[in-house]
Write a structure and sequence with these properties.
- This protein is α+β, with helices and mostly antiparallel strands and 110 residues long.
- The protein has one domain: Alpha-Beta Plaits (2-Layer Sandwich).
- 40% of the residues lie in helices and 29% in strands.
- The chain contains two helices and five strands; from the N terminus they run ββαββαβ.
- The chain has a five-stranded mixed β-sheet with strand order 3-4-2-1-5, with helices on one face.
- Helix 1 packs antiparallel against helix 2.
- The chain is globular and about 40 Å long.
Length: 110
């Protein structure tokens, strides 16, 4: 199971932690893990390349771990862009979780 913890402060996402493989299928053919990874990693790419937010990123592909944190000292334009990207990411994760709740756990904490 993949455990996703999203931390918010004042309604804005400050940190995302994804831990574990979904184990929906065998390694290399797990479509749920691939879909979830694509959603989260595309959000990271959007933050880095579109919003130009230099996130604090940590990952270990073997363990199925990815974590990133939004720096506090970003511009209001970067905050806006990050919010749009991260809110879209939550939509994708939530949609996947609806269909595969035995394999994805989502916790949002304020």
């Amino acid at each position: 199971m993949t455990n996703i913890t999203i931390t918010k402060k004042n309604g804005e996402i400050t940190k995302v932690v994804c831990d574990g493989h979904t184990n929906y299928g065998i390694s290399g053919e797990d479509i749920v893990c691939s879909a979830l990874s694509s959603v989260v990693q595309t959000a990271v790419l959007g933050l880095l390349m579109v919003a130009k937010v230099n996130v604090n990123l940590s990952r270990n592909e073997e363990k199925g771990f990815l974590s990133f944190e939004i720096p506090k000292d970003i511009s209001s334009e970067q905050k806006h862009d990050a919010k749009v990207i991260l809110d879209t990411m939550i939509c994708g994760i939530s949609d996947l979780r609806e269909g595969f709740s035995d394999f994805i756990e989502l916790e949002v904490k304020e």
